[in-house]
# Entry
Amino acid sequence: MQDTMRRIEAVKEDLAQLVAFRSVSGEEGRLASYIAKMHSDLGHEVHRIGNGVVVRFAGKDPTTAFVLNGHIDTVPDTGWQSDPYSLREENGRWFGLGVNDMKIGIAVMNNFGKIFAKNKPPGDVYGIFSDMEEVDGSGTVRIMDWLSKDYPRWNQYQRKAGIILEPTRDGDKEFICDGQKGGALLRVEALGPSGHGGQDYSKSPTALTKVTSFLGDARRLQKTWEIYGDNTGNPTITPTRVFDYSEAGNVVAPRATGIADVRTTAEFNRAWAGIRNQLEDDYAVKLEFSWWPRVEAGDPGSEIVAFAGKILPNTVTRAFPLASDLSSFRAHEVPMLLYGPGNLRKIHTPEESLDPGPVIPYMRNLQRMIREFPVYTRSS
# Structure
């Protein structure tokens, strides 16, 4: 019991340090420097890649590499009433920007770094602290390109696999994810007549009317998109923002833009060209994804899935409903799973909070994975 309390306090202390850094996407530099210095001071091999950090925890068996990945950026602090950069505890929960997504995962990775400074892991372990995940995942792409092209040791491992510590708790239920939906922002633009707001525009809809008409039909559209569902779930669309370009409240702007968060499936992606053409005709808008929503289907036959099933035999495997860096690793033939202590229902919310109860049991499971992976790869 005392050991558990010490570990949770150590994680909490580091989480408080992490939350104190403002690390909105594109502004991760100070936090990256903090992480790099921490692990360098612990004696680990550290590489700074842009605003990302790669740490090698040298193990006893140099033929295998087990990867721990987490992103250090957060979404902006919109809507907070309390200080988002000060970790506080209330009613047994921890509050702070990014505590679920995913500074608790970074705190866990840092904690393992401290453990490995005193006791070498069985095989090499890598801590990959990536940037820009909340925007487009370019930080992980940059790091994986560097590892594959400019870090000779990386290509000498006989086996590589690992865990992305994204939040995979749903309420009280824990699961692991071997696939993900494609996530992207859909930009909805329209043009229309301009003039005084008191005029009658019923025969010639304004730009704002067209955009809001489309976004207002989001629930109906999502229902029709169920035919494109697969084992990752059904496509979803959630309006997030609308803005126009008028200079006064009673002046109709000639242009309007809306943003929707869209999560896609492989079948939806294949059908998108036709879907887009029909929607643009129906609503008189222009639709464009901010980036192409990459879908990563689950791979039930992969080594990491079989290994995780051995360690967590009673844990349900499902597809990750949000975007992540899974596809960036698989593009470099590094099989990964998502499995983390944060709660999906609390991410990206004002007054974001975390239940610390599952953190230590989660760390024990992760520690077992790290310990048994080299043995598993030799026997498999």
User: Anything to note?
Assistant: The mean pLDDT is 93. Residues 2-180+295-379 form a domain with the Aminopeptidase fold (CATH 3.40.630.10).
